[in-house]
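Hey all, sorry for the wall of text incoming. These are the four entities for the joint prediction.
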Amino acid sequence: MTTGTITTTSLPALAVTGLTVRFALGRARGRRIPPQVHAATDVSFDLHPGRVLALVGESGCGKSVLTGALLGLLPANATVTGAAGLSGPAGSLDLLTTGRTTLARQVRGRRIALVPQSAATSLTPVRSARAQLEEVVRELCPGTDARVRADSLAERVGLAPADLDRFPHELSGGMAQRVAVALALAGEPQVVLADEPTAGLDRPLVDRTLGLLREVADAGCAVLLITHDLGALRRVPGAVDDVAVMYAGRLLESGPAADVLAAPGHDYTRELLAALPSGGLVPIPGQPPQLTDLPAGCAWHRRRPGRCDGGDVVHRTGARSVRCRALEAGPC
Amino acid sequence: MHVPLRATGGLVATAAVLTTLSACSAPGTASDGADTRRLVLADAYEPEPFNPVGGHGETGSSKVYDGLVRLGGGTGLPELEPALATELPRDDGTATTWTVPLRDGVRFSDGSTFDAADVVATYSAVLDPASASPIAGNYAMIDRVEAVDERTVAFRLAYPYAPFPTKLLLGIAPSEALETPGPAEESALNTAPIGTGPFLLSERRGDRTVYTANPDHWGGEPEVRELVVVYVPDDNTRAQRMAAGEFDGTTLPPLIADTMADAEGLTVVGHPSADHRSVSLPAGDPVTGDPAIRLALNSAVDREAMVTDILGGHGTPSYTPVPAVFGDSHDPDAAFRHDPDAARARLGAAGWVPGDDGIRVRDGVRAEFTLMYFPEETLRRDLAQAFASDALAVGIEVDLAAVARPEFRPRIPVDAGLLGGGDVPYDPDTQLYAALHSSYTRPGVGGPFDNPGDLADPAVDAALDAARRSTDPATRAAAYRTVQQRFVANPPAVQLVFLEHVYVLADGDWAGTEPVLEPHAHGVSWGPWWNLRDWRYTG
Amino acid sequence: MTAAPPALRRDPAPAASPGTRATPAPRPSRRRAAARMAVRRLAFAVPVVLGVAVGVFALAAASPFDPLAGYLGDRYLTASQDVQDRIADELGTDRPWYLHLLGWLGDLLTGDLGTSRSFGQPVVSVVAERLPWTMLLVGVALVLAVVLALVLGSWAAARRGGWVDRVVTPLCLLLQGTPPFVVALGAVAVFGVGLSWLPVAGLTDAGAALSAGQVATHLVLPATVLALSQLPWLLLSVRQSLLGSLAEDHVTGARSRGLAERTVVLRHALPTALLPFVTVLGTRLAELVVGAVLVEEVFSWPGLAQAVVTSATELDFPLLAVLTLLTTVAVLLGSLLADVATVLLDPRVRADG
Amino acid sequence: MADRDLRLPLGVGVLVLLVAYATLVPWVAGVDDRVTDFSAARLAPSPGHPFGTDSAGRDLFVRTAAGLRVSLLIAVVCAALSTVLGAVVGAVSAAAGGWVDRLVMRLVDGINAVPHLLLGIVLVALFRGSLVAIVASIALTHWTQVARIVRAEVLSLRDRPHVDAAVLGGASRWRVVHRHLLPAALPQALVAAVLLLPHAVWHESTLSFLGLGLPPHRPSLGTLLEEARSSLLLGGWWTLLFPALSLVLTTLAVAAVGSGVRQRISAPRRGATLR
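and here's what came out:
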């Protein structure tokens, strides 16, 4: 059941502005600062209740780092700057500056939930799915009957209660994915971050997972879908509301899905779509950038010189925004 | 499925309980709550089997048997008192026939009456080869034992034997138990003794033996109602538990006992003994058999240092097997002086020339021999090490060898041994005869520990036999003095020390203990508790 | 493990897809598989135990040990030659050793284990009297070691570099270098002689009745020392495997679900870390027995392990042979239990793995 | 935690110190430990006697060194014997393969089933008092680990190209084992030997402590600690402290060296065989 018309001007559940993540490799010896991995640079986007934002890009472009940064799960050698304002009935706070304990006690699972990348390995192998689901229910919503709630969650994600009694290694890829979603929904979060939920699934399962996330969004959650499967977005219209394209740690383009997919504003998006089977399988020349030595300006400019002005300025027109401007006519 | 984490929580609780439980209850004292008429003693040795024919209580120390006579207290050579006999045995003037009148109205613990038949049965069983009794040799002088009547026994000896009364300390077992001849160690008496003694054996399990007072003992029921003897072999453990107040008394090596001298509530008691330690010098070995080496060793050894440093003063130097307590029989001049230089001079004169490593050599033979000792006895180990060190100082190398008891026997004629002596010290004859008489060098006569130095000196033999047969104390004393002078002239062994047996006693509500000359035996059957039957409760 | 009642399987809702894998093996089969493994391991154990028995008897035959000396003990020094010969043929000690072994094995089956000279009673009663005390000591020590390993190991891993980690880990390295009897001596020196807080010997205070309180106070030092002698290997193994599993995906997954850190460590990281711990526990059992021998000797705890030392020093062959076999069986059983526990604990492992 | 590669230099340093102490001190002091002076028994550590004196008045600084020397000597001999025995058995069973290999492995499992010390106690109890028995009791129970390591090494090397080449060149199986496989397995065997040392030191000192090893008057870490048991009661804590300290330091140093060497040996190897 979708809730009325979605206006982009309603207050965003999560507003991420200027999110930058650096990983220090090795230890600083003497004066020489250690090499750094520019995992994400100046990433900004908003998640609105009821809408699904798809974050797309080649693998290794720093997408998964975002979920870790937002939930404070990055390893010790990471430094995160920028702001991520979470607002809602339970009060607003900045994810990047709150302490670890508040993140653990009030945010994770309760207000922001994660559907991890490889669902099977994110479950403890020696405990059944039911035990882990009921545990989350008992922890997040004390007082409810864990067994009943677990079964209803299972129903909601399309699992038979008996399937919950299996061990993680006895679950199929699809089933594990659905258990992960059930776990995410257990605490009725405001925001759901899904990190490559469709990786490794066959086509009907991918479509069904996207449908599931759609239902979650329609139930009022703000959903971030991280994927490299552009084809699926095209194949299942309406699965996502907005799209953001990421390359070498930077957002190159974002805007309503239909517009971006139909008329990509940035040359890279155009080439991405062209590389799809539906777009004629045109390979993108050059090599994906190494995140350790990125140029200051627009990394795409170095890989495809002459296709954009190399500037690092975000041009915003209406709901769409593009970084740097194409040399020929039309937005870069 | 929850992994046993909840179980680990439970385990943590039990571990915590255990530790708190222990922290609050300090070690209990021996007599908390138990009947105060009760004594708990710790012994270093397990009690030997209880069959008198097997040697139990040969010197009158048994708690469950009575001998015809028993020892009187006092510091010197103890007098004998009548026990099951009504008066001391009388001889027929030639010391060959001894008649002993017996006490009437005495009953064994199984209710049977005590009479002459029991005495005859006991001594006959000792002499009977079928019993294979290890103490048979000590009673070889008895030819026949007869019951003159219900209340009198006559001992017919093969030859006159003046000190015969000391042979009547042996505990008397009921004739009914000795009817079937057979090896002494297989008799039922070993584990279920039937005696007339002041105590009854009530429990014998694992590490503890419990005696209870015999209500109808002919000498009256002892005031000590219950005696518990716990077997704690390790000296250190015994000392720690004694210090912690777990026992009423125990026997300890002298140095460890001295550490408790100033502890409040504990007193250290020393009893004189004829128990001596010596190093046997096999005659067959070219080094230990050589008279010069033997005499040199006797002057090289510093006996006074051993007494003060190793025994902590609890003992006296021993030059011959005869302790000073034997009075006239002891010859004070038969002694050695600690004089390493004299020893070196004597060795040099005898042709033992020091080699480049300081060890003397003669005709290609190095002055070196092996000294065996029992590894588990720290006292013998320290004496052996001190002996080896003193010998080295004069150029004789002594290689120490820790040899367990089973392997000890075959090596006695070959290697020197750190031996103990003075098993029956109540007459010079039992102290010297088996140790020095040449008849004990022949195979099959006595055991390996008799005359280990293979002394074959006609003069010694003659003196020993004369002393044994004479009834005149002066003649006997003179003969024994001659034996000591011959011993000092060509010593078959290096006598080291006479031990003072040391005991630690917890102050209690008891009186009645008195010193006594103790034999080589060890353990709490002796010590202050040897006359437990006479103790009076003053609590 | 709560096996869910076999719910009626609804016709799959459109969204649910039939499981693509074969239906999972029903849970009890793992128990049957573990049982099968246990039987195979026991079958393997019989030849090993027999081999040890043959080894011990062959060694005895090849050694200067004279069973007669064992039988006669001190009297061996004084008994005359004919007495020895009589007893020799009576005991049959002059038969070849393998006949002796067969005879002994025959007696073993009928429960007659021969008489122990050093304890002056049949071997059976020595075992019956002393085995419970060894079981108590080893049991409490094992529990103490496991609990300490789990608690301290997890604490040191969860708070890596924290004060627990900085104290416990070097202490474990030091303890690994210290043989059990040195740890025991140290304990006696400090607690027994020095502070005399705790009794250092025996089962109860002498003369005192056998009460739980007495035994407990006397059990504290030996059990703690025995636990400490095995703790380092166990603790470091828990710490190591826990550190490893803390970095794994399923732990980050658990954290992302908003579970409290304690729950994440204890219910998600520790269970997977337990599996290698159980196998290490299995391998340490032989050392635990060795530790028991030394601890019982120093604290004169009247257990079977101390009987090993007594029977060795006094050359009491019947008892020594039985104790050797008993220990071998105990160790084999221990490692079997550890493997079975691993199979039961870890659903992923196939039984014959 | 100390950085991993710090353990090797630290271990070697401590070990060199200990070996120097064990060999030089008795030689320099020139004191004959058969000389006793019971009047100087159990003196507390003092400038004259840095480690105090033992129950027979001998200086513990020298006596501990002599004890350490004996224990180390026995340990090295046992480790060497075990390694040789283990290497030979391991190599033979790997090379022979088939039922020989299975038989040997069953034997190895059998020996490992019985706690090593217990086997040692039985052996030493039967062959009472002979040094050979003590060495045998340690060597005969510790070769199994070496055998297992060498066997694994030989098995992994057996199908390597240079071995096939040798076989093709007409070399007999045993020559291959002798000239190619064993030398290749040597480093691993050496590491196993070094790691055996702590066990051997423990084993000897435990046997002596139980009164089954070296005779009490002979210096060794075990006999010194056994003696400490009685001196402890008379307040002689130093008779326990210094021998125990040298035993623990030796064990830790050798273990550190062993694991350090293994880490060095296996590291490049792993890089080299980038299959």
